[in-house]
Design brief:
The chain has strands at 2-6, 9-23, 26-39, 45-56, 61-67, 75-76, 81-90, 94-105, 111-122. It is mainly beta and 128 residues long. β8 (94-105) and β9 form a beta hairpin. The chain is elongated and about 50 Å long. The relative contact order is 0.28.
């Protein structure tokens, strides 16, 4: 598990290999990740958008920007936690993701970025 704290918001990530799939006549490696967002600040915050950089061992890079996370824009009061699970398909058995969430602080009404630390994917058979 990797963790990062930005402005009192703690991000923890746990990854898992889900298997291989054929899509468009090409093998893909499926991974899931669980993200826990903890509000250790004294203010209520809301997650509005996400930005991802997804890498695989073949040097491919994909950028994904979007609203919220898995269809939600969670509001976290001080001490609250929001957890969600998502996934991605890679063209190789090893890869990584990193990014940030854009959040708003309800007390100051200012937007800020929360860093999502780089987390790695690896299929068990890919490591020796």
């Amino acid at each position: 598990m990797v963790t990062q704290i930005t402005k009192g918001i703690k991000i923890s990530v746990l990854t898992s290999f889900e298997g291989t799939y054929f899509k468009n006549y090409k093998i893909h490696f499926a991974f899931s990740y669980e993200i826990k967002i903890e509000n250790h600040s004294k203010d209520s915050v809301q997650l509005n958008t996400r930005h991802w950089e997804i890498y695989d061992a073949l040097n491919n890079k994909e950028i994904v920007d979007g609203e919220g996370v898995v269809g939600k824009k969670p509001v976290l009061k001080p001490g609250e936690i929001h957890t969600y699970t998502s996934g991605c398909l890679l063209s190789s058995p090893i890869g990584a993701m990193k990014g940030f969430y854009s959040m708003v602080n309800f007390t100051t009404t200012k937007s800020f970025r929360v860093i999502i630390p780089t987390f790695k994917f690896s299929a068990p058979f890919a490591l020796n």
